[in-house]
């Protein structure tokens, strides 16, 4: 049973640091309120931690 994270962009990355904007794009988020599902692993968790003020995260059981 693998866990997944549902990540939703809830705040615009405009006006934030360049690396935070790049991290949002690397996660696969492009528009406000867009959602993606990513595997729950340390690399994705680290990316989410860097932009935690811009995203909402939900854990999904598969």
List keywords for this structure.
Ribosomal Protein L30, Chain: A; three-stranded antiparallel β-sheet; 31% helix; alpha+beta
Helices and strands, with pairings:
Layout: E1 3-9, H1 18-27, E2 35-39, H2 42-50, E3 55-61
Antiparallel strand pairs: 1-2, 1-3
Question: Can you walk through the features of this model?
Answer:
The protein is α+β, with helices and mostly antiparallel strands and 62 residues long. It has a single domain, classed as Ribosomal protein L30/L7 (Ribosomal Protein L30, Chain: A), CATH 3.30.1390.20. The chain has two helices and three strands. It has a three-stranded antiparallel beta sheet with strand order 2-1-3, with no helix packed on it. Helix 1 (18-27) crosses helix 2. The longest helix is centred in the middle third of the chain and has 10 residues, at 18-27. The model has no long low-confidence stretch (mean pLDDT 95).
């Amino acid at each position: 049973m693998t866990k997944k994270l549902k990540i939703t962009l809830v705040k615009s990355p405009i006006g934030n640091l360049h690396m935070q904007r790049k991290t949002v794009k690397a996660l696969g988020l492009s528009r406000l309120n867009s959602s993606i599902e990513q595997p729950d692993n340390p690399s994705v968790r680290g990316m989410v931690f860097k932009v935690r003020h811009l995203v909402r995260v939900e854990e999904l059981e598969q």
